[in-house]
Amino acid sequence: MPEMPEVEGLVRYLRERTSGRAVVKAQVAAIAALKTYDPPIDAIVGARVRDAQRHGKFVDLELEGGLHLVFHLAKAGWLRWHETLPATVIKPGRSPIALRIGFDDGSGFDLTEAGTKKSLAVYVVRAIGDVPGIARLGPDPLGDGFDRDALAELLRGRRTQIKGLLRDQSVIAGIGNAYSDEILHAARMSPYALAANLDDAEVDRLYDALRATLADAVATASGKPPADLKDAKRRGMAVHARSGEACPVCGDTIRSVFFADTDFQYCPTCQTGGKVLADRRLSRLLK
């Protein structure tokens, strides 16, 4: 799933290539992906792009006339950029393409989604707060106001495992499964640690790891075309999706915990005092 650093990379790429360009084509190929009907999708045709912004994992193309084209790539969605938009006809239901947008210089992009479970979402709204997922977002972890004390306040009193809390978009916007693994590894913290139980030193470590991990990933993503972002993300991972490999910090074997529809990775030596986490949702540390 694209997370904040990759989405930020996409936003910067789109800002550079679409600002000032007029939309000449807006074709929905997967009706289920379009979550709004007023304004209609064709209301954006003829409007010029004023800016591109990121809200958590949402991409927002701000258009003239007060409209916003917003999309969330979900688990299996991606953006495919074309310097020259293909002339081929999209056949609804027979293509991975969910949306095609074209601009007045001949360029454009497709939003695609692999797999059978379709979650990619597209919105056309007059106000960004009209997108329910954006209205519920917590603070941006790289925002100017997100300091160590802000994080400590978010953790206070929450009897929630820190892994789940980092992924909760209503608490902190933009972090998903991959970067929560990376942040917790950098912070030398168990995924099952309770947020409310973290002491001051642990909060310090978590904050430093969160900011550094995300800032480094954003820097890596910036300037890369969409086609290169996924590989850049994979190369930068220390533990996520590296089960069975050696931890780059201590050399221990990276382990996984599997749930029904997801998994996460961690290093026992760096994060759990050498103990291995059992492979079930309500696990405690194995003794």
Overview of the molecule:
Helix content is 28%, strand content 20%. Helix 1 packs parallel to helix 6 and helix 1 runs antiparallel to helix 7. It is elongated. It starts with a helix and ends in a 16-residue tail after the last helix. It has eight helices and ten strands. The model is unreliable at 281-287 (pLDDT under 50). The chain is of the alpha+beta class. The chain has helices spanning 4-18, 132-135, 148-155, 162-167, 177-186, 200-221, 226-235, 268-271, and strands spanning 23-28, 49-55, 58-63, 67-72, 77-82, 97-103, 108-113, 121-125, 255-258, 263-266. The strands form three sheets. A four-stranded antiparallel β-sheet has the order 1-6-7-5, with no helix packed on it. A four-stranded antiparallel β-sheet has the order 2-3-4-8, covered by helices on one side. The protein folds into two domains: 4-135, MutM-like, N-terminal (N-terminal domain of MutM-like DNA repair proteins), CATH 3.20.190; 148-271, Orthogonal Bundle (Helicase, Ruva Protein, domain 3), CATH 1.10.8.50. Strand 2 (49-55) and strand 3 form a beta hairpin. The longest helix has 22 residues, at 200-221. InterPro entries: FPG_cat, FPG_N, H2TH_FPG, Ribosomal_uS13-like_H2TH, Znf_DNA_glyclase/AP_lyase. Belongs to the FPG family. This is Formamidopyrimidine-DNA glycosylase. Keywords: DNA damage, DNA repair, DNA-binding, Glycosidase, Hydrolase, Lyase, Metal-binding, Multifunctional enzyme, Zinc, Zinc-finger. One of its GO terms (biological process) is base-excision repair.
